[in-house]
Design a protein that fits this description.
Elements (H helix, E strand, L loop, with lengths): L13 H8 L3 E4 L9 E4 L2 E3 L9 E5 L2 E2 L18 E7 L12 E7 L7 E9 L3 E12 L2 E12 L9 E13 L3 E15 L4 E2 H6 L9 E17 L4 E21 L2 E3 L5 E4 L3 E2 L9 E2 L6 E23 L8 E25 L6 E7 L10 E19 L4 E18 L9 E19 L2 E12 L3 H4 L8 E2 L13 E14 L7 E14 L2 E5 L7 E6 L3 E14 L2 E14 L3 E4 L7 E2 L5 E5 L11 E10 L4 E10 L18 E11 L4 E8 L7 E6 L23 E5 L4 E9 L1
Parallel strand pairs: 4-7
Antiparallel strand pairs: 1-2, 2-3, 4-5, 6-7, 8-9, 8-43, 9-10, 10-11, 11-12, 12-14, 13-42, 14-15, 15-20, 16-17, 17-18, 17-19, 20-21, 21-22, 21-23, 23-24, 24-25, 25-26, 26-28, 27-31, 28-29, 29-32, 30-31, 32-33, 33-37, 34-36, 35-36, 37-38, 38-39, 39-40, 40-43, 41-42
Length: 729
């Protein structure tokens, strides 16, 4: 993808542009915020949500930007206007840890690649207002580039999913005949509202309804990167970078609570009569809340400083008279994270489900809730080499590999939870081999095998005990160790093209098959306690993601059309027993915990099998362009429905329209309509704990107790229209 693909002529944000253009990609949503969605590629995910098992490595200017704490990817940090090009690569060990499903490489603009000044403003439905300016240029051997973006979106859900996004990118560079050097900075200060999934019975009454709030996330970034390219000779060159990344996240989440009146209703307890505050035999918190309905405000803060770099040598000397391309390098990435969390007892407004804090902070380790203060350090070291050898002018072979070594330390800072302290080491060599054969000038065959590994993140290592589940993204306890994930991928296919000019049209196409078998896959499992938002991580044996991918693009005169289809068959390959509370099809053991027995062949929830996209653009005149895009996503099993017994999340299709008009050489106006037929559809689904919210006074009817269906969904955005203007100089 190039910078033109990210134009707001076609889509309103980075993720929509990627979803529109690339086969195998779908977008899912856990937060109800357009800036914080999940990117799913062939059943592997890059997500901004802490606690989501990650499977895609994302790079910006050669720096892996999966955050150290949970490997999350904060898409809202990426200045869209500053993107020069994006490449999506399937499983490849050269891209290091977490590239088990693939890697997304983002290259930003600089003053050598972009010259001029551009300003843009657009807005539309749900209070969307967004503006940007970018400028770049060079003088002799010096270049400079800067982009600034600001956006506000009120959100279409009730109450609190508005977004305030402010981000910038600056690059200064210098070069001569042999060397090019750049220093760039990415900064962001974003406040994002979240509303998450809503019980299906509430959505049936009002499509924009939310369950509890407030839910908001403050995200801040200061990211400095220096890159160097130097040619020693015509065949030897060096590429390197060094970076520092400061990341801050503060999250507030209004939820239900397990707190209830004790046997003596004048005090409050949690979890089988344990006092809300202090030791088991200590005093319980006085109950002064009357008939208020009980909830809690869960807060956490992540502060990470990470730094590192990569040094790489490239050689293109001929070998035995044949063209040969060798890349070898080493990378080191170090992160230092301070994680704090607390839970405040709250009351819930019965009219709008808003949670208000009471000033009482829950501290009950035996019930899985106590303040957390943890320091995590991780050091990831990689050494890699890959060689592409042209056996003939039609047949090329690539072989290589990467050795990864991960060191992860967890240290409790409260002085009360020494069992949380741990030292973890993971290491592995991952090979890759493949080949391409040009059958004809217009037809090429390719095939390859690769392996990649993913070490558990500090967050996952700190929450892997089913007997002590965590408030995901909030609380950590002492845990058994997790194994690293190892993925084995085989891929093969054909690609080609036809036509060379506008008279006949230009056709490009590709058809391939892929198969990724993952050992010791890490999944998030719901707490056996059945409390909403609680869970833990565990290894789930082998999982398999396999399928086919096809794409087609045709350009003829004023027409440009595309279509692509991906089929993903994602299944468990090991028999395993998983906790599944609130699942109407779960079994119950003697201790009252609900579980399911997964058998090989059961499908992995949350991964749609069918993905189809098509679109067309037409130049009505030289100045006026119109187009339409169709996105079809197949049905998927509800998250945590491991044995596939509940009804699926239904398939959906969305049609988007776009148009642009070049008023003058320098001024262009554009407009978009998303979900033009105003379809109601679900992006994802899960189970939740029914029964409503208890009152501080025993015997009072629970709030929202009438909600009996355990399914909860994230609804898709209704029809939305936007218009904007762009000026270039």
């Amino acid at each position: 993808m190039t910078s033109a693909d990210f134009s707001h002529n076609y889509s309103t944000n980075f993720l929509d542009a990627v979803n529109r253009k690339l086969p195998g990609v779908t977008l899912t949503d856990q937060t109800g915020n357009p800036f914080q969605r999940n990117l799913d590629y062939r059943g592997f995910v890059a997500s901004p949500v802490q606690g989501t098992p990650q499977g895609i490595a994302v790079y910006q200017n050669g720096v892996r930007i999966n955050e150290s704490w949970g490997d999350v990817v904060n898409w809202d940090f990426i200045p869209e206007k500053a993107i020069d090009r994006v490449s999506l690569v399937p499983n490849n060990p050269v891209f290091g840890l977490n590239a088990i499903g693939g890697a997304l490489s983002i290259q930003m603009k600089n003053g050598f690649t972009y010259q001029g000044v551009e300003g843009e403003a657009f807005g539309g439905s749900y209070g969307r207002v967004q503006g940007s300016v970018q400028a770049g240029g060079q003088k002799d051997n010096i270049s400079a580039y800067a982009a600034f973006e600001s956006a506000y979106d009120r959100g279409w859900r009730d109450y609190a999913n508005s977004s305030h996004v402010n981000r910038m990118y600056v690059d200064v560079g210098a070069r001569n005949d042999l060397t090019e050097f750049h220093v760039n900075f990415t900064g962001a200060n974003n406040l994002l509202g979240n509303v998450a999934a809503t019980p299906v019975q509430m959505l049936n009454q009002r499509w924009s309804s939310v369950y509890t709030w407030p839910q908001s996330t403050l995200l801040q970034l200061a990211f400095v990167n220096a890159t160097l390219n130097h040619n020693f000779s015509d065949t030897w060159s060096f590429q390197g970078n060094a970076y520092f990344r400061g990341f801050r996240q503060s999250h507030v989440d209004g939820n239900g609570t397990d707190v209830e009146p004790c046997d003596d209703p004048t005090t409050l307890c949690i979890g089988n009569g344990l006092p809300v505050f202090g030791p088991v035999d200590g005093p319980a918190t006085p109950n002064t809340l009357g008939t208020a309905f009980l909830g809690e405000l869960d807060r956490n803060r992540v502060a990470t400083n990470s730094f590192g770099g990569t040094a790489q040598l490239t050689n293109t000397d001929r070998l035995f008279g044949h063209d040969n391309h060798v890349v070898m390098g080493v990378s080191v990435d170090h992160g230092n994270t301070k994680f704090t969390a607390s839970s405040e007892l709250g009351t819930i407004d019965p009219n709008n489900l808003f949670v208000t804090g009471t000033g009482v902070f829950i501290n009950q380790p035996d019930a899985g809730l106590s303040p957390v203060d943890l320091r995590a350090t991780n050091t990831y070291t990689g050494v890699y080499l890959t060689d592409t050898f042209d056996v003939t002018n039609r047949f090329s072979v690539t072989a290589g590999g990467r050795f990864n070594y991960a060191q992860i330390e967890l240290r409790d800072q409260t002085g009360t939870n020494d069992l949380l302290n741990s030292s973890n080491r993971f290491q592995r060599f991952n090979p890759v081999i493949g080949g391409t054969y040009k059958i004809t000038p217009n037809l090429t065959a390719y095939a390859g095998y690769s392996e990649a590994n993913r070490a558990p993140t500090p967050l996952e290592l700190g929450c892997s005990d089913p007997n002590h589940p965590c408030m995901i993204d909030t609380f950590l306890v002492a845990d058994p160790p997790l194994k690293q994930v190892v993925a084995h991928t085989v891929e093969a296919g054909l690609r080609g093209g036809w036509g060379r000019d506008a008279r006949t049209g230009v056709l490009t196409w590709a058809l391939g098959a892929f198969r990724t078998l993952s050992d010791d896959d890490i999944i998030q499992v719901t707490s056996p306690l059945g409390v909403n938002n609680f869970g833990f991580f565990q290894n789930a044996g082998q999982t398999l993601r396999q399928g086919i991918e096809a794409k087609l693009e045709y350009r003829y005169n004023s027409w440009n059309a595309y279509a692509n289809y991906t089929y993903v068959d994602a299944t468990y390959r090991s028999a395993i027993t998983l906790s599944s509370p609130n699942n109407p099809n779960a079994l119950t053991n003697d201790a009252g915990a609900q579980f399911v027995n997964v058998t090989p062949g059961d499908h992995i929830p949350g991964i749609p099998a069918h993905r189809f996209k098509a679109g067309v653009d037409y130049n009505v005149t030289e100045a006026w362009k119109v187009g339409a895009d169709l996105n079809v996503v197949g049905s998927q099993w509800i998250i945590h429905d491991y044995t596939n017994q509940s009804p699926k999340v239904p398939a959906y299709s969305v049609v988007n329209l776009h148009t642009s008009y070049q008023i003058t050489k320098n001024i262009e106006v554009f407009g978009l309509i998303n979900n033009v037929f105003n379809q109601h559809y679900y992006l994802s689904g899960a189970f939740y704990q029914t029964g409503g919210f208890a009152s501080a006074t025993p015997g009072v009817t629970n709030l929202m107790a009438q909600l009996s269906d355990p399914r909860t969904f994230v609804p898709g955005m209704p029809l939305a229209a936007y218009a904007g203007i762009r000026a270039k100089f």
